[in-house]
């Protein structure tokens, strides 16, 4: 039996017969062929859940120093984020952080551990912290689909997901909004309800039929496409309010057709004197009028930059009159 097949055997036993059966099989393997056991632990096909449940046995058998770098980092990471410490004898060994191997190990934890989410409270805690670090420190886009899947699975099961939502939106990436929006098309009412909540959409909109769900999804994508250059993330989360608004639209930037930083809300390039003069007029209008002006300005700028350059120089009252009429030819 080669190492890969042995690793797969451990996975099958854990999933089919449970953790204790997996541990018994591991101890039997170690007693018979110790060197082969280490190869099994270091096998590329081993999942984090199996390493996690074997932590006590790895310590008891003093195998930590024989593990590969991926596994050593993973076990030290568990000790760092969990209250119970299993590696007291190696506590003096620093946890390698902020290097490629560290982040690769965290991604392995999350990628291979996600299918076993719910294994234990401690296990889920490790997944959440690894996802948070990868998102906040690495801005790793590959993590977002995994995190989104975990959020909606936990919501379906009724388990805790608020920390993961906070980490997810900490990416401040429009891709995160698209991943949530995908759930608007789900057949599961829990998915659509949570998607509406996280995207700050009205939850009284009927989403009972496939057509209604597709319409809501298409409508949101259209809104996202229009406002993408002017979106900023608020930092609100479910830990603060039951109805968070994860992002907002900078109407001033939309009016001037100036792309904003999603992290800082401000335009990525400085305003010219002419733009600042236009903005001063815009700021004095009512909020509903700002929305009309910003929407019209963005649309006109996309369709006919030349006409937009003419329109934006008009007094704000004339701009608003044209915008309300929806005119495109006003020369």
Automatic annotation (TrEMBL):
Record's protein name: DUF4116 domain-containing protein
Organism of origin: Caproiciproducens galactitolivorans
Lineage, top ranks: Bacteria, Bacillati, Bacillota, Clostridia, Eubacteriales
């Amino acid at each position: 039996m080669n190492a890969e097949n042995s690793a797969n055997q451990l996975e099958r036993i854990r999933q089919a017969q449970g953790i204790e059966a997996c541990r018994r099989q591991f101890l039997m393997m170690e007693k018979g062929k110790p060197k082969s056991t280490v190869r099994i632990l270091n096998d590329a096909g081993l999942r984090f859940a199996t390493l996690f449940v074997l932590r006590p046995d790895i310590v008891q058998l003093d195998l930590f120093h024989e593990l590969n770098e991926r596994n050593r980092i993973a076990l030290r990471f568990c000790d760092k984020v969990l209250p119970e410490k299993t590696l007291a004898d190696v506590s003096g060994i620093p946890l390698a952080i902020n290097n490629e191997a560290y982040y690769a190990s965290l991604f392995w934890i999350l990628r291979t551990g996600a299918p076993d989410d719910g294994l234990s409270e401690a296990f889920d805690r490790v997944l959440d912290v690894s996802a948070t670090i990868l998102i906040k420190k690495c801005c790793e886009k590959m993590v977002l689909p995994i995190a989104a899947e975990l959020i909606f699975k936990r919501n379906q099961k009724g388990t805790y997901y608020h920390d993961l939502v906070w980490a997810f939106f900490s990416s401040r990436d429009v891709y995160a909004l698209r991943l949530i929006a995908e759930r608007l098309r789900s057949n599961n009412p829990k998915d659509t309800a949570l998607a509406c909540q996280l995207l700050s959409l009205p939850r009284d909109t009927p989403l009972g039929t496939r057509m209604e769900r597709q319409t809501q999804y298409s409508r949101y994508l259209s809104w996202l496409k229009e406002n993408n250059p002017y979106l900023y993330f608020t930092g609100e989360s479910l830990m603060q309010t039951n109805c968070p608004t994860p992002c907002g639209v900078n109407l001033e930037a939309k009016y001037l057709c100036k792309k904003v930083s999603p992290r800082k809300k401000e335009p990525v390039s400085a305003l010219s004197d002419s733009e600042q003069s236009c903005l001063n007029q815009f700021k004095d209008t009512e909020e509903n009028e700002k929305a009309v002006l910003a929407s019209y300005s963005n649309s006109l700028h996309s369709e006919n930059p030349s006409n937009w350059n003419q329109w934006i120089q008009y007094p704000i009252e004339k701009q608003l009159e044209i915008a309300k009429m929806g005119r495109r030819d006003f020369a």
